[in-house]
Design brief:
The complex is a heterodimer of chains A (482) and B (820). Chain A is built from eleven helices and 27 strands. With 482 residues, chain A is an alpha+beta fold. In chain A, the strands form eight sheets. Chain A has a seven-stranded mixed β-sheet with strand order 2-1-5-6-15-14-12. In chain A, strands 18, 20, 21, 24 and 25 form a five-stranded antiparallel β-sheet that branches. A five-stranded mixed β-sheet of chain A has the order 19-27-26-22-23, with no helix packed on it. The longest helix of chain A has 27 residues, at 445-471. The radius of gyration of chain A is 35 Å and the shape is elongated. By secondary structure, chain B is mainly alpha-helical. Among the domains of chain B are: 1-63, no CATH class; 224-382, no CATH class; 602-797, 3-Layer(aba) Sandwich (Rossmann fold), CATH 3.40.50. Helix content of chain B is 57%, strand content 5%. Chain B contains 36 helices and twelve strands. In chain B, the strands form five sheets. In chain B, strands 7-8-12-11 form a four-stranded mixed β-sheet, sandwiched between helices. In chain B, a hairpin with a 4-residue loop joins strand 9 (743-745) and strand 10. In chain B, helix 10 runs antiparallel to helix 13 (291-308). The chains are: A alpha+beta (482), B mainly alpha (820). At the A-B interface, helix 3, helix 4, strand 26 and strand 27 of A face helix 35 and helix 36 of B. Chain A: Component of the oligosaccharyltransferase (OST) complex. Chain A: InterPro entries: DDOST_48_kDa_subunit, OST48_MD, OST48_N. Chain A: Residues 1-20 form the signal peptide.
């Protein structure tokens, strides 16, 4: 972590504390299609406003809907509520939206079967693919077995237990939503998510649902058959390979994407599910029971997650030091005992609706000590003794490898719903200095003795030579004469 | 000492001196010699028959021998000082023409290391670990370099500060090579004087001072190991000759000190390690073993080896590698022979013969067996690869492309001998011949040195440096012999005359006196040749003398002219700054390298990693101060091959390599616009070859040649070539410069296709004024998980008709972990 961001972090959190519940900001731009009646969704807007967001409404063609001005984001979050818009002003073009997202703009796309081709092109950049590619009119999700009694089968009621992708939604949705009433999905589009690893599936279609056209339901059986088979034929003709019929778990209705930089994007396949009609309303299910819809909770949870209220984890502090020291070093010696410590904090909303950071406790964090490949991979254990005001400290102690080079302390934590925790710090491991080697080694005694004995013998020899040589002058003289 | 004058001493001619022709260095030598001989003559002058020598031209007579001696040494000193001055002066072209700047590649590293040494002290330098080199492997610099050069510069820098002359370390480094070239001239003088006459010494000093073969490695700014190594080489050889002649352990120790310094300074020290033992061995074989040789060699070997082992980079090599075994073997042999000599003195003859034979055979068998066992058990390392390439010039190309890729490791072309040594190369065999003629112990040294270095210089361009000193010495000997013969005023008696003299020997005293008187009456010198017209026969006539001497002088003038021209035009380019001529003759400085390096320094993060071909590693580290993947210290072939692979592969293969090594910027050298031929496209095949050495399945040299086997960059270029990162980076947007005209690559002389090159994973970050240096920034992975090709097409306005993985998904694709 760079020192500047270390400095900025408390300031930013302070700002967040006084303004909104989101950890990033509270300015929301809502791009609302002109033919959408705003007050049909009043409860949704209200729920956002009560959470402290300033909503700005613009139309797709508004020239002044600038997302980025002078390199700074004008808004922190974007709600794209214009599935049917044929064209957008340049400031809302796919390119500018993507660039704003790279700069940190969280976005929720509300899409519907009226989705235009230009919007699909943008969504395909996120690796979403639409079932009715190429067809002019709208195919929607239909379930004749699960729908509110008084509604048609195009208003699908999805059970929270079977339709939510349980592996992914644990951190995105609140427990009350997870156990709450069915989620009503009226007149919704169906799409597939690709292999993009940043995509998180949230809600998929039920087993009994299929894709078709609602109007057929009032017609005869024959036409229904035709409508269903129409899709198959159509697919078969457009591509040579026969595509499978997308259904059930593969038919995604709501998904989300968290970019590498923790910017969050949500994709909701039905605009009507926000309608006041379904917002905290009692409905009668097929079997006659009366239950409260889960829509309000579901949408709120999703928007909280996308607007960085929940599931946000940040690195407060990351450091490493040698045994007996506290400051990080640029150079460690081979076989030093090195400790790496990482303090993480989770964002939460206090009871009075302000933003705060608190402890983040997990037991599966790990640290890699990497040079090209991980040389050491060890668990980061929670350090209970560390007293950190807001956050949890994790520590890993290890012996530096016997290999010199530039190593990185790498922590990567990637779980759906949580911010990606990514920390990488460089430090070098160097060989021992010239005076750090052990001075006397037991194994080297033969050498010490050899050196000493040679020196002593040499001196003795010299002494002998000198003393004997003095007396031998005569012989020397003789030799010379020879 | 000058060789004894053959004619016995006699009274110098009484003639009134005409002006002595020419400064007559040699003539004065002879005069001095005669004078000393006269002085030392124990016999009274009257007893010898006064026989007057014939002189070709008059000599001054009234100068006392002391004056001659003094003048002589003063002259020698002045001449030597002037030679040193000339040696330094002729190396300053680069400083005057450009500026006081460090040259080329390796010197930049040496300079950087010197800065560490003077700024942080010796111990820090010794323990220096450089995390920015060979990222991420790092380099323990302190123990992987020859510290002699930096320590020498550091000592000089400290000394200058001590005497209150605060000089920038850069200036010390820049001027070190010329300074030591001056010292080399001095040691060469001493060395040659030991071999021949002082006049030959002065000639040799003058030759080595300006010989291009040596200047090529020692111009100002060429702050490389060779800069001081040649001085140390000559110093070690001189003191070895001195030690061997005098049998003094002191001189042996001085040899060892020079040797130790040399070991600390240059890997070429192995040459000394093998030269001296070889000399000793040849002397033993010639039956010239004596106690002086024993003392000199033993004191050199013991002290020298111990001092060489103090260098961290060398450490135990002297007792564990094959290159050093010869010295050890000769040391053992000398002990053996010395022992045998002692025994022979003590034991009567017959028993001795038996004992000697048994002993020698036994020791030989035992030591040879020990050597074999040690080599096979791995205690003694076999010869290193660079060593093998000395014997088989094709070896490196097959087994070590990294060594073969260096231009200075190529075999030498014949013209470069003339280019670097001019006339000296022709006088060189003559000098060696003279050594054979006298064949004293020290001259055998010259012969061995000449033979070995002549071979080495033929094998590697780089070793021209090693042959240069011996060529200078041998040529100087030959030259001075020639000059001596033709300037020596004494005209030797012809055989007839001698015969006549012997025939008349038993003649009466009167007759002898008569002859003597007649001779005395005659003028002792004869103007002959052109001047006299009186056909004094043979080659001793003044005309012949004049002709030969003037031709030799002409040679000398031409030599100086040639040396200066070569130095100025070929060896004084810093290669960091290039110069060209405008049409009007004015100079145009091309400073792209520094421009680019400073751009990196100013505009990138301190820890951004720069990838380039290894040639530029030291310069980037030195001038841009950024971590590099590979540099000129080519110790890790795999790492270099990795860079080679990244450069020669397409973007899809290269990108993961770049990301794995945290590469932020890539730097390529492109000469196509300016016609700078030393660019990366010309080096590209070596990258391919080196990469192929590591990954023969993935990179193949064949794929970079057209069907007809040409190395083409125009339309004919193969798809592999066109898709390689190096090609793309070099020619990215190149055609736009030509505004619709065909884009002409001036190095290859080919037309670059004007279809635009698309780079998906890189962004052009910087291109220098003349396009020599181009820097690209490596893009990060896309934040929303698209591949970078898709990002480029999206930014280019293309719309997706189908999502990237939709077809895979339908058949059950699996998500992978995102790349962090």
């Amino acid at each position: 972590m760079r020192p500047t961001s270390l400095l900025l972090a408390p300031i930013l959190s302070l700002i967040a504390l006084v303004t909104a519940r989101s950890s990033t900001g509270d300015r929301v731009l809502v791009v609302l299609d002109s033919n959408v009646k705003k007050n049909e969704y009043s409860q949704f807007w209200e729920s956002l406003e009560t959470r402290g967001y300033e909503l700005t409404f613009k139309q797709p063609k508004d020239k002044d809907a600038e997302l980025v001005k002078y390199g700074e984001l004008n808004y922190d979050h974007l709600v794209m509520f214009a599935p049917g818009a044929k064209s957008f002003s340049p400031s809302l073009s796919p390119k500018s939206i993507l660039h704003a997202q790279f700069a940190g703009l969280n976005t929720i796309y509300f899409i519907s079967p009226e989705l235009t081709e230009s919007s699909k092109e943008l969504l395909r950049e996120y690796d979403l693919e639409f079932i009715d590619a190429g067809s002019s009119s709208s195919d929607i999700l239909i379930d004749s077995f699960n729908h509110p009694l008084e509604s048609s089968s195009s208003t699908v009621a999805l059970s929270v237990t079977s339709s939510l992708v349980q592996d992914n939604v644990g951190e995105i949705l609140s427990p009350s939503t997870l156990t709450g009433g069915p989620i009503i999905y009226p007149n919704g589009i169906v799409y597939q998510t690709g292999e993009n690893p940043y995509l998180i599936d949230i809600l998929h279609a039920s087993k009994t649902s299929y894709i078709g056209q609602d109007k057929l339901l009032s017609s005869d059986e024959n036409q229904v058959e035709q409508a269903v088979s129409y899709k198959n034929n159509h697919k078969g003709s457009s591509s040579s390979s026969k595509d499978a019929i997308v259904n059930g778990k593969k038919a995604i209705l709501v998904s989300a994407l968290q970019t590498r930089d923790n910017v969050r994007i949500g994709f909701v396949g039905s605009t009507e599910m926000l309608k006041d009609t379904w917002w905290n309303k009692e409905i009668k299910t097929n079997d006659g029971k009366s239950v409260k819809t889960g829509n309000a909770g579901f949408i709120s949870d999703l928007s909280k997650w996308v607007f960085q209220e929940t599931g946000v984890v940040k690195i407060i502090d990351s450091t490493h030091y040698r045994k007996g020291e506290t400051e990080p070093r640029e150079l460690y010696t081979k076989k030093d005992e090195v400790t790496h410590s990482l303090t993480l904090a989770k964002h939460y909303t206090t009871a009075n609706g302000t933003s705060a950071w608190g402890p983040f406790e997990v037991d599966d964090l790990q640290l890699d000590f990497t040079m090209l490949d991980p040389h050491i991979r060890t668990a980061l254990k929670q350090d209970k003794s560390a007293s950190v005001a807001q956050g949890t400290t994790y520590k890993a102690k290890f012996i530096a490898p016997d290999r010199h080079g530039v190593f990185k302390f790498v922590v990567e934590y990637w779980r759906p719903g949580w911010s990606y925790i990514r920390s990488s710090e460089k430090a070098s491991v160097v060989p021992l200095r010239h005076d750090e080697y052990p001075r006397f080694i037991t194994g080297a005694w033969p050498y010490y003795i050899a050196a000493c004995s040679t020196s002593i013998t040499f001196l003795a020899f010299c002494a002998l030579w000198v003393s004997l040589g003095e007396g031998d002058k005569d012989r020397k003289g003789k030799k010379k004469a020879e | 000492m000058a060789p004894k004058v053959k004619t016995p001493a006699a009274t110098p001619s009484k003639n009134t001196p005409l002006s002595t022709p020419t400064p007559g260095k040699i003539a004065s030598d002879i005069l001095a010699e005669q004078a000393t001989v006269v002085d030392n003559d124990p016999l009274p002058a009257a007893t010898i028959t006064p026989r007057v020598r014939k002189l070709a031209y008059p000599l001054p007579t009234h100068i006392s021998p002391t004056t001659i001696n003094n003048t002589e040494s003063l002259l020698r000193f002045v001449i030597l000082a002037l030679i040193c001055g000339a040696a330094i002066g002729s190396r300053l072209f680069a400083v005057i023409r450009f500026e006081s700047v460090i040259h080329e590649f390796d010197p930049w590293f040496n300079f950087r290391a010197s800065k560490v040494l003077v700024n942080e002290g010796f111990y820090e330098f010794w323990n220096w670990f450089d995390p920015t080199a060979w990222y991420p492997l790092g380099r323990t610099v302190g123990t992987t370099l020859y510290p002699g050069l930096m320590v020498t510069a550091g000592v000089i820098w400290h000394f200058l500060r001590l005497i209150n002359m605060p000089v920038d370390i850069r200036n010390v480094c820049v001027m070190l090579a010329p300074g030591f070239a001056g010292l080399t001239a001095w040691t060469t003088y001493l060395f040659t004087t030991e071999m021949s006459t002082p006049s030959a010494g002065l000639l040799a000093a003058a030759f080595i001072g300006i010989a291009p073969g040596y200047i090529s490695r020692s111009v100002a700014g060429s702050y490389d190991n060779e800069a001081i190594a040649i001085f140390l080489l000559m110093g070690a050889f001189y003191s070895w000759i001195k030690a061997m002649k005098t049998g003094s352990a002191l001189w042996g120790m001085i040899t060892a000190i020079f040797y130790g310094w040399m070991v600390a300074a240059w890997g070429g020290y192995v040459f000394i390690t093998n030269m001296i033992p070889l000399h000793a061995f040849v002397l033993i074989l010639m039956g010239r073993f004596n106690n002086r040789l024993y003392t000199a060699y033993s004191s050199w070997y013991v002290i020298g080896t111990i001092s060489s082992m103090q260098v961290p980079f060398v450490e135990f090599l002297p007792i564990r590698t094959s290159e050093h075994m010869a010295a050890l073997g000769v040391f053992g042999l000398l002990q053996l022979i010395a022992f045998v000599e002692i025994v022979r003195r003590l034991v009567p003859g017959k028993q001795f013969q038996l004992l000697l034979r048994a002993f020698v055979v036994l020791v030989f068998v035992v030591s040879f067996a020990a050597l074999v066992v040690l080599t096979f058990s791995g205690w003694i390392a076999p010869f290193a690869g660079r060593f093998y390439s000395l014997w088989d010039t094709g070896y490196a190309k097959v087994h070590m492309p990294i060594i073969a890729s260096v231009s200075e490791h190529q075999p030498t072309a014949w013209p470069s001998f003339f280019f670097d040594l001019e006339m000296l190369i022709f006088f060189f065999p003559a000098g060696v011949f003279w050594c054979f003629k006298e064949l004293r112990d020290e001259q055998i040294f010259i012969i061995i040195y000449a033979t070995l270095s002549a071979y080495f210089a033929g094998v590697m361009v780089r070793l021209m440096l090693v042959i240069t000193p011996v060529v200078c010495v041998a040529a100087a000997i030959a030259f001075s012999k020639l000059l001596e013969a033709y300037i020596d005023p004494v005209i030797p008696e012809s055989e007839e005359e001698l015969e006549e003299a012997t025939a008349h020997q038993p003649m009466s005293k009167a007759k002898a006196k008569k002859i003597a008187a007649a001779q005395q009456n005659k003028p002792e010198f004869n103007f002959t040749g052109i001047l006299g017209g009186k056909g004094e026969k043979g080659i001793f006539g003044l005309d012949t003398r004049f002709a030969v001497v003037s031709v030799l002088s002409l040679f000398l003038f031409l030599f100086v002219y040639h040396c200066t021209w070569v130095t100025s035009s070929a060896y004084s380019s810093p290669s960091v700054v290039l110069a060209s001529r405008n049409p009007d003759g004015s100079q145009n400085i091309i400073d792209d390298f520094r421009e680019a390096y400073y751009w990196i320094r100013q505009n990138t993060e301190k820890d951004s990693v720069i990838m380039s071909w290894w040639d530029y590693g030291y310069q980037i580290a030195g001038m841009a101060d950024r971590p590099t993947l590979v540099d000129n210290n080519t110790w890790n072939n795999t790492h270099i091959a990795t860079v080679g692979k990244a450069m020669s592969s397409n973007e899809d293969i290269a990108y993961p390599i770049l990301r794995k090594h945290d590469v932020d910027y890539i730097l390529v050298i492109f000469g196509g616009l300016l016609g700078y031929s030393g660019d990366d496209i010309n080096k590209f095949l070596w990258m391919v070859r080196i990469a192929q050495g590591e990954w023969p399945d993935e990179v193949q040299e064949v794929n970079y040649f057209t069907q007809r086997g040409e190395y083409a960059v125009d339309e004919r270029a193969t798809p592999t070539m066109k898709n390689s990162l190096m090609y793309k980076m070099s020619y990215y947007r190149f055609h736009e410069l030509f505004g619709g005209h065909p884009a002409q690559d001036r190095v290859r002389g080919q037309t670059i296709p004007s279809t635009g090159i698309q780079l998906d994973t890189l962004d052009e970050a910087f291109t220098s004024e003349n396009w020599i240096v181009r820097i690209y920034k490596v893009k990060k992975e896309d934040a929303i998980g698209r591949d970078l090709k898709a990002v480029t097409s999206f930014e280019g306005g293309k719309k997706l008709k189908k999502s990237a993985t939709s077809s895979n998904n339908a058949i059950g694709g699996k998500k992978s972990r995102p790349n962090m």
